[in-house]
Amino acid sequence: MRVTFLGADHEVTGSMHYVEAPDIKFLVDCGMEQGRDMYENMPLPVAFGEIDYILLTHAHIDHSGMIPWAYKNGFKGSVITTEASMDLDSIMLLDSAHIQESEAEWKNRKAMRAGGEMIEPPYTVEDARAALKNFKAVDYDRQIELSDSVKVRFTDAGHLLGSASIEIWITEKGETKKFVFSGDIGNKGKPLIRDPKYIKDADYVIMESTYGDRLHDKELNHVEDLTRIIQSTLDRGGNVVIPAFAVGRTQELLYLIRLIKDNGYVKGHDNFPVYVDSPLAIEATQVFKENLRDCYDAETKALVEKGINPIGFPNLHLSVTADDSKAINFDTEPKVIIAASGMCDAGRIRHHLKHNLWRPECSVVFAGYQSEGTLGRILEDGADHVKIFGEEIQVRAHIETMGGMSSHADQKGLLEWICAFEKKPRKIFLVHGDDDAMHTLGNLIEKNTGIAPEMPYSGSIYDFTEERYIVKAEPEFIRKKDKPATNMKLAQRELNDALNELKELVLDSREGANADVKKLARAIKDLVKKFKY
Predict the structure, then answer these.
(1) Among the listed ranges 22-26, 90-94, 107-111, 408-412, which one has the minimum average pLDDT value?
(2) CB under 8 Å to 70, separation ≥6 — which residues?
């Protein structure tokens, strides 16, 4: 029995592990690399047509985003995951495919002008639809048989709706060994979903280490924080603008706002309006509603049994179309606006920032991690001016941060998870973390358990029958020497946003003075002439 470590090794995205059992071959996750990319991921050492199953821990794109690509390249097996993960991926993979197609279209237009070669997207919407037909859902805590030698069980990881750690029993030559792939381990005490469930025994553990060197502030009270921000902002006559990830964070915020409204914590602004401005977030919210009975925590269960929608309340508005989105900023009533993307790098949130950042009565609230270089991080770091759609915007709104809302377990949570094993594993492998996080957590695990974890690089192959590396990859062979200067996906999204902004400007200017209309027309022609080649 062998595991080849392929993705999210000394990195945080692109999770993929290839498992060779006596009578089947399967993957645990098939994720897309996102954001910072330090190391080359080694390719799958066999054809995708040889893979029998993909076991999916959860729906986030860094764990599931290459499944349509696997089908496009010959994979014919089933994707085994939980019902909620299947439902979330039914919208997230289609959204991802649309992004791949749009990016390829943009690159091909540029290549045509320059006489370059055409490219194909990694996969299309049709590829994603075809892949989704082969998803099969399993219940938590139910052991299923994949073959004569392999049994698996999905256990609630408490990270996202439907997320799981996967327990795998593999029998070879009459001996059964148990493997646990942690998936992403959840942060305790999160709204809606249950805390991660601890596993009692394993021979080998492959464990994430994302926040292995960080601690969340557990003293924070999110309801109090959000109440204070909403109260003070509405009192000033401003809008509360919250950039939020469409899946998970948006639904948590709706849960908190329902609590605030139900308990009348905000005074003098009865029934204040709340807008969710993200088609993906709206679809994901429906998935959350449909799956709560299978994934809820005790508090949410009590609400559902009383007939209360835990993420719904009066005066909640769901903005689907572009016209719906634009109308929000022409409505003068103070309100809460939740829009994607969570780091302000693309999407409708940028329009809301453009209309609200310069207003001192407004607030912009960050409820999630902001990566280095994103607009969200620039604002969080205290910039007094930012450029949005080519326009310089003065930052006069109140910039607020709600810390501790991460869906990942912190260092303490990770240690609690691994120390909960009553039967100590023979070996622990750390993945899904950067170098500092992995080494910090590894040292603490060794101190607490006496087991020094392995930290394999992509391309490493470990044989669990012989308990040794067949291949032990070294970082100098896979470290990326030349990092791309531009994230093309973000650039493409920003260009699309700029195009929409230009269309809006042209439409708004048609009824203006002739001199102004002519001035705008000349400026557009000059811009086209400057960039046309």
Answers:
(1) 107-111
(2) 27, 30, 48, 51, 54, 131
CATH 3.40.50.10890 fits 222-401, yes or no: yes
Q: For residue 231, which phi and psi values (nearest 5 degrees)?
A: -60, -50
> Does the pLDDT value for residue 191 go beyond 60?
yes
- Picking from 275, 62, 20, the residue whose alpha carbon sits closest to that of residue 147 is 20
Structure tokens at 525: 């022609």
Strands 316-318 and 391-394, by their bridges, are unpaired
Pairing relationship of beta strands 2-7 and 468-471 according to DSSP bridges? unpaired
Distance CA 495, CA 501 (A): 10
Which H/E stretch holds residue 470? Answer: strand 468-471
Alpha-carbon distance 11 to 33, whole Å?
9
User: Can you give the residue ranges of every domain in the chain?
Assistant: 2-215+407-478, 222-401, 488-531
Tell me whether the CATH fold assigned to 2-215+407-478 matches the one assigned to 222-401: no
Q: Is the pLDDT of residue 482 over 50?
A: no
Give the pairing of strands 78-82 and 53-55: parallel
Q: Give dist(CA 214, CA 411) in Å, integer.
A: 6
Q: How does residue 480 score in pLDDT terms, banded at 50, 70 and 90?
A: low
514-531 and 488-509 helices cross at what angle (nearest 10)? 160
What is the structure's pLDDT at 287?
Answer: 84
How much is the average pLDDT of 367-380? 80
d(CA 316, CA 328): 13
> How does DSSP classify residue 324?
H
Rounded Cα distance between 287 and 307, Å, is 17
* Cα–Cα dist 504/483, whole Å: 35
**Residue among 435, 134, 88 at smallest CA distance from 291:** 88
Find out whether 183 and 159 touch, Cβ atoms under 8 Å: yes
Residue 510: pLDDT band with limits 50, 70, 90: low
pLDDT cut 90: percent of the chain above it:
62
Band of pLDDT at residue 483, cut at 50, 70 and 90? very low
Q: Please give the residue that has the higher pLDDT: either 307 or 491.
A: 307
CATH class of segment(s) 2-215+407-478: alpha beta
